[in-house]
Amino acid sequence: MAQNPNEMELKDRVELIENMLAAGRRKTEKWGWTFVLWGVAYYVAIAWSAYGNPGVAWPVTMISAGILTGLVASRIKRHEAQTTISRAISSIWIPMGISLFLLMVPLSLTHRLDAHSSVAIVSAIIGTANATSGLILKWKMQIACAVVWWAASVAGCFGTESQTSIVFLVAIFFCQIVFGIYAMVCESQHRQRGAVHA
Amino acid sequence: MPELPELNPVVHGKLRLALLSLLAGVENADFSWLRDKTGSTDGNLGAQLLKLEEAGYVAVEKKFVQRKPQSIYRMTEPGRVALFEYVQALKQLLGDAI
Prior knowledge:
The complex is a heterodimer.
Chain A: H1 7-25, H2 32-51, H3 54-77, E1 81-82, H4 84-109, H5 115-137, H6 140-155, H7 161-193
Helix pairs in contact in A: 2-3, 2-7, 3-4, 4-5, 5-6, 5-7, 6-7
Chain B: H1 9-12, H2 14-24, E1 28-30, H3 31-38, H4 42-54, E2 58-65, E3 68-75, H5 77-94
């Protein structure tokens, strides 16, 4: 065993432990871009459905967005640390995506889906994922997005088909595009504050 | 007078202590992430991680991701115990000073 050092050195070690524990827990994930990407993907699928083949538009766009997300995420995550929270968040969004895909594609292919029910189902499921994620991260802005999605889900059950579509487009704009950009700005600020050296 | 505790020299090294403290807060971490957080050089970081690995305080998993080598480090249970005992010894040595 080493001879015990002086008090200054010991205090330096205490400070080092505190700094490193904080640095390890500091949020460094970069997920804001996924909200923007999926928001754009929804818009592409909606536009393609309106002016082309709805049966092909959604599955192709969603599969493409899923592959793109997986590719970019695997590149980003190569140089990251995994925390229990980051694993919990991934465990919400990946099964949600799979559930939506498995539910919506067969319903669409069998023509058992109209504009009202599709907006109501998709909005409710995305709202649930946002709420769970927001509660884990204690992130009020994401919980607010969940409330908007749930409101869109309820609104989707009423009004005309075009009104339902407008509700969905507005929810996508605020909860995917605007929220995604906001998350990216927050993540960038976190990273700038996060430089700690031992 | 009670005997003062001795500090574990493997844990006491500044960079090794930083690495153990970082790994205590995460499930696992990549070599590059540890280098960025500590501001250390590749050589020094590799040497200190090897010492921690030899002491049984960290475990490493080497794999290839997109054809590039990647080393993933995680803290072992003996490492967690060693850091806990080190912190307890620090508290005892510093007493009212912290």
